[in-house]
Specification:
This protein is mainly β. The chain contains one helix and five strands; from the N terminus they run αβββββ. The protein has a five-stranded mixed β-sheet with strand order 1-2-3-5-4, with helices on one face.
Length: about 80
């Protein structure tokens, strides 16, 4: 889904992309929840952002991933969009 569709679904105005300075891990915050961010977001290559719901084959958990449209894999200043 587009970022705007995601915002509408969760009734939020913005997503914050943050970096944990201790671990270097990049994530996005929506409300009180967090999601994963593709590495392209930190390298300036996130020109057409999309959000996908991802199922982890290892744990069975689902999470949201902010990524470049058409990007098949990858997860992981930071910006307010």
């Amino acid at each position: 889904m587009t970022v705007d569709q995601f915002k509408e679904m969760f009734d939020i105005n913005e997503l914050e992309i943050k970096k944990n300075e201790s671990t270097g891990k990049i994530f996005f915050v929506y409300g009180v929840e967090t999601g994963a961010v593709s590495k392209k977001a930190t390298s300036g290559q996130l020109t057409n952002p999309m959000i996908s719901e991802v199922l982890s084959p290892d744990t069975g958990d689902t999470f949201y991933l902010l990524h470049q449209q058409g990007e098949g894999r990858g997860a992981t200043t930071l910006a307010v969009i």
